[in-house]
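My current task is to audit a protein record that another person submitted. My question to you is simply how this chain folds and whether the tokens agree. This is what I was given:
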Amino acid sequence: MLDLSGQYKKIQSEIDNAIKEVIDSTAFINGSAVAGFAKELSDYTGSKYVIPCGNGTDALQISFMALDLQPGDEVIVPSFTYIAAAEAILLLGLKPVFVDVYPDTYNIDIQRIQAVITTKTKAIIPVHLFGQSVDMEKLLNIASKNNLYVIEDNAQSIGSVYTFSDGQKKQCGTMGNIGCLSFFPSKNLGCFGDGGAMLTNDETLAEKLKMIASHGQAVRYYHEIIGCNSRLDTLQAAILRVKLKHLDEYNKARQQAAHYYQENLKELKAYVQLPFESTYSTHVYHQFTISIKNDKRNELKKYLQEQGVPTMIYYPLSLPEQKVFQNNRNIDISKERINADILAASVLSLPIHTELAEDQLEYIVNKIKAFFL
């Protein structure tokens, strides 16, 4: 599904030198590379403040804490996504409210949000799934109208750019109150372990996020609020500084592979729904996820595995179908989620990464064609 070894070998000397500098300095926690990466990521995204942390899930939880969300408060989250956002909601005693997704972009259905807003609703989490932005202009209008916080889950779409109706462009993760990033190794910008960050343009909020991530302290050993321990270690920051320089190149390589798939699989439209590229967002293809028609998904997956082609199912269940939510009486899982359940039963992600060669892409495409035609 990805070739991290091949990617590393192309920048091996840069990575090795960065790691050696950290080892030589012995500043393994909060070394200079952490602040350096935060500054460079701020420059790249256009976000005024970047607060590194331990991982993307921590980023979500810390964001809820910083916004003073209280037990019982409701947070809107898409029905089709990874569990991290909903999990963090539950960990803090908040209530996830699920909203169905669009069948083409797989992102939250904006038209369905207003209907689930109550007096207890405090925030919306738009998840920029698989590499492209939620329709943020419409979502931000709903949030503003209802006085709701917006926490962007941008674990999968770093570098994706959203265009507003007036032509203004902003990167995913920089449009809401807080944007949350993951640097898990498989991400478009991935480190060699766990890592995450929070983005915001609010100075007061940035200070609070930073305090919470460091045991609730602004000055060492003086703890003002309840926090946690969530740090991006210096080795990972040093690696990310190197890879950030190559991020646009990495995203372009993913886009080129995706466009090869798009062009060469379009004749299978009777059998396969290809990823949709919206007019308002660039797509950086963290995943190339197709939807298989006529209940053939599992059969195709098995066939491709036999042919040496790896695939993955992101995600086999919609969130309301997960046991953890079905067993919770305080969560309403009856909301309409037709598209989320259909996608869970039909999606299949093909290999997409920076090192895919055209002969590999041709092989994958030919095997898919051979299955259907």
DSSP finds 13 helices and 14 strands in the chain. The two ends are 24 Å apart (CA to CA).
